[in-house]
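Appendix B. Chain record.
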Amino acid sequence: MYNRNRYNSVFANSRNLISGLVFMVIFVSCGERKTERDRAREGVTVTETERAASMAKNNSIPDSSGYSNVNGLKMYYEIYGDGKPLVLIHGGGSTISSTFGNIIPLLSKNRKLIAVELQAHGRTNDRGTPSGFEQDADDVAALLKNLNVPKADVFGFSNGGNTSMQLAVRHPELVNRLIVASAFYKRDGMIPGFWDGMDKSTFADMPQPLKDDFLKVNPDTAALHIMYERDAHRMQTFRDWNDAILKSIRAKSLIICGDQDVNTPEHAVAMYRLIPDCRLAVIPAGHGTYLGEVIADDKEKWQLEFVANLVDDFLDR
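Structure tokens predicted for this chain:
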């Protein structure tokens, strides 16, 4: 979970940290898309109250939602749309709706979305052990097997980006294409002051919109505190990953980063250089603004539409 520095404008005072690299994009024409319906569902149907909360926040109605028994968890998931599966993995301190709620309606037009909530987040319970990117990846892998999804594209944001990379490394047979947004793999990849702020953070520092979003889908305040503690501990104890981890990713990948993100553009470039088959997009935006994340100060429609088109073009090439 990030203790975010905020900026008055995503366009103001551009740091221009990489010579000639302010706005790198992939943009190709969208071809005709073919879809196929996969109605295999698994898990327990959620209550009408939970479904209504999801609908109100996401501005979209899940085709189905439920819980699946995964490595000691009852993992919550939602499914939207039809076509090739795309797994959505939220950021730290977040839920499906707080990270992806505003972009789900755009992404679900052309593919089947499988949105998950990780250990201690939202409607998924805590298993009583520390959270870790590797364990989260194993949990998502188990969920996909329970849902009879042999292979899927994967889109992870922030901490979810770290989880998505671990999923590609630990379970390469399950990952078709990989999108890693606003993630990192070394401590020096974050903006100055980030780790000092993280070490000193308390529950009071957690952004109120994230607290509110959690409580809308799970009114248990004790569970909210557990989620905070799990995520804070994971970040405070993070140790650098070896370059070999990224070099071992075999899925065709796309790195997305805001030019005023919490991870630096240089770090995004380093990740892009390490992953063997990788593309890079640096967008004039802050952390999560390009997804319309609930905590984002400035949500701009053009950014959502751009990223949705970018994702579609990358996955359909």
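Further analysis of this model is presented in Appendix C.
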